Amino acid sequence: MPVRSAALATAAGAALLLLAAPAATAAPHDARHVTESVTVDPTGRLTADGTVTLSGTYRCTAGTGPVFVSSTVSQSEPSVRHGIGGTRAVCDGLEHRWVNTGTPSGNALKPGAAHVEATLMELRPMGGLPLPSFHARHGQDVTLTEG
């Protein structure tokens, strides 16, 4: 019995080493291997009539439903977010630009510091209904400039 237990322990230890080896020898994180991401440019535009334009980049792989880049902006109250448009995404694994434009009600935004969140979201058909599936999300402090 002791020989059998030692053999099993040795085999189990070897299996654990083999399973851990790829993780231990994996290359450090490389941004070129990221398959899905969304970024936000550090500056957004705010026109005199309150129209906001936000932009950035995205990268995604093929999905089963339509994919969109949506964005929100907040300023003095972080819990109050204003939706700023949506852009249909092309999910071919390449990096693309997105630009969203919208006009929050009541001229709620002013030039200056703001926070933008961009989301890469797919509407996947599940049981006949399109349900949201999130691919990537990024929040960034930006400056809204007049123009």
TrEMBL record:
<dbReference type="InterPro" id="IPR046266">
    <property type="entry name" value="DUF6299"/>
</dbReference>
<dbReference type="Pfam" id="PF19816">
    <property type="entry name" value="DUF6299"/>
</dbReference>
<protein>
    <submittedName>
        <fullName>DUF6299 family protein</fullName>
    </submittedName>
</protein>
<feature type="signal peptide">
    <location>
        <begin position="1"/>
        <end position="26"/>
    </location>
</feature>
<keyword id="KW-0732">Signal</keyword>
<feature type="domain" description="DUF6299">
    <location>
        <begin position="35"/>
        <end position="146"/>
    </location>
</feature>
